[in-house]
Structures are given as C-alpha cells and as structure tokens.
Amino acid sequence: MTALLPTSTAGSLPKPSWLAQPETLWSPWKLDDGELAEGKRDALRLSLAEQQAAGIDIVSDGEQTRQHFVTTFIENLGGVDFENRRVMTIRDRYEAAVPVVVEAVTRKQAVFVEDAAFLRQHTDAPIKWALPGPMTMVDTLYDAHYGSRRDLAWEFAAILNQEAKELAAAGVDIVQFDEPAFNVFFDDVKSWGIAALERAAEGLECETAVHICYGYGIEANTDWKKTLGSEWRQYEETFPRLRESSIDIVSLECHNSHVPMELLELVRGKKLMVGAIDVASPAVETPQDVATTLRNALQFVDPDQLWPSTNCGMAPLPRTVARAKLAALGAGAEIVRRELSEGSLG
Ligand SMILES: [Zn+2]
C-alpha cells in the first residue's frame, strides 16, 4: 500500500445499468437466479478495475452484490418479516416501508463472506468491507419483539461480529461499520451506540473502521442538511467518545460540507478517512479541489493518519460521474503526497 495518504471510498459505487436501474436507491435487479449471481460477480470485477484505474489504494466491492447497505444484510437474518412491512420514519428524516422484527434475530448463514473471498482472489491490494452498524440497523427496522433499541442493537452487534470475523478470515483487511445514525441519535450513541459498535468489532484481527456521514445525496438528506444551520457540529458529540473507543479508523464527511475542520482534532490519534469528494453533487471535483480539502485536514490530522476518501457512498450517482470523481480523488491525493514528500507543506 502507498505509505502516505492511501485512498479509499466510503463504500458503494454505481452499478452497471444491465445489473440494476441506475441512479436509484433500492434499485431492483435486472437479472434473475444464476444470471444474477454471475452478473453481480462481473460487476464486482468491473468496480475493482475502475477503482484500480483511478489509483485507489484500498479497494472494495463497490457494494455491487447488495441492493442496499442495510437491508441486504438484514434479508439474510432470521427473525425478520419482510412480507408484512410497517411504515417507519428513518433517522427522523424520511418514511419507508421497513421489515419487522417478529422474533429473536439470528444469522442464518454468512452474508458477504463468499463475495469477499472472490474480491480477495482478484487483487493483492488491501480490501475494506462495509457492514451496517448496529444502531443504523435498528433504525431501519420496525421492532415488534425486543421492545428496546438497545437490546436489539446488542443482538445485531453479536451477529455482525460473527460476520466480521469470517470476513477477516476470508482476507478482508479493514471491516467498516456504517453508522450514519450516529449523526442523529446522540443520547443513544452515548448510552449504548459506541458500546454496541465495539461489541461488533470485538476480537477482530483486522483493522476496524466506523463511517459516519450525512448520507447519500438523496432529496430527504439534502432537505435535512438545510435544517442543520451554517455549521454542522454533530461530530462534536460523538468524536470524543470514538477517540476513547477500540475502533481504529473513523471515516467522515469533510468536502463541501459545513463540518468545521477543527472538529477533526477531537479524534486525534485515530486514523481518519477524510471525505474529499462530495457525493451529493454531480459536479466533479478537480484534483486541486481534493488537494485543498486534504491540506485543510492536515492542520488537524497527522499525515500518516490521513486517508483520503469520499464523503459517503456514490451508488446514486451516474456511473461516469462516479468514475471521474474517483480519478480526481486519486490525482488529488497524489498532489498532496508529492508536497509532503518534498516538504513543501507546513
Ligand atoms: Zn455515508
């Protein structure tokens, strides 16, 4: 891996239009059965090739084999009824018909382990694999069994831990838990969110990351962002606790957002995947735009702990746009890498 400023993405990348409807969340598959299985693998290989062409150092599956970052994982669990959905408000923001927890949740089988092994076969680069975090899972379901968000999160954490350990054994170098809900439910984060996250990551021999963001560039999220005021200080609530946690890496949103850069100081000591690509806008950053965000972050992050990334997943973007943004990320990181090695920064 590149010694300095290794690049990665937050997670999802657009799927090819022959596999799923583009620019759509929860997009239905266009293939069935054996063709679908083969199509997902082909898309995973394409996604890997696109990341490598853009100079991305830590690669992922681009989430090509899953319909959605939370629900696809839940579909593989027992105790959840997907037929009789209930309408619920997700992250206090938008309504969705969600599955219902009807009895004790169980992990019936490995969910992504075969896909991770497949990715491992095709690259020697470090691999990052994203899983939903326990709190975000709880927030994407209607619970008719546990009667306690904390208890349900704890069960999910144990299930995630099993999956994460098998992913690590399959050759995954970094397991990332996606917790956008950490930017909304601050009291829950304090009372059980971090503990559940640590439970999910317990005993893992690979590195662990948590991704906390302001969401995909969908309308419900952009409307919500308009209510947050000129300075987004949500990270201020969670970072001091994450700094004390067992999690190795924090993945966060920095580019074009209203997050004051000095908040990064609150997690000093952790490796930071700093979002330098805006996923809520189709405008493609220049490498210089990326470099500017990274230079700003370097005021608060040590160079050996800064890992350039995207603000969030790019699944809802047009594929050509996502490809260009990946290239800008790779080229922007290279600019700053050169400046650091020449000693022309700081
Ligand atoms: Zn995100």
TrEMBL record:
Organism: Candidatus Brachybacterium merdavium
Its EC number(s): 2.1.1.13
Cofactor(s) the protein requires to work: Zn(2+)
Enzyme class: transferase
Span of domain Cobalamin-independent methionine synthase MetE C-terminal/archaeal: 5-328
Alphabetized GO MF terms: 5-methyltetrahydropteroyltriglutamate-homocysteine S-methyltransferase activity; methionine synthase activity; zinc ion binding
A Gene Ontology BP annotation from the UniProt entry: methylation
Keyword Membrane: no
Coiled-coil segments: none
Keywords: Metal-binding, Methyltransferase, Transferase, Zinc
The keyword Chloroplast belongs to this UniProt entry's keyword annotation: no
Superkingdom assignment: Bacteria
Protein name according to UniProt: Methionine synthase
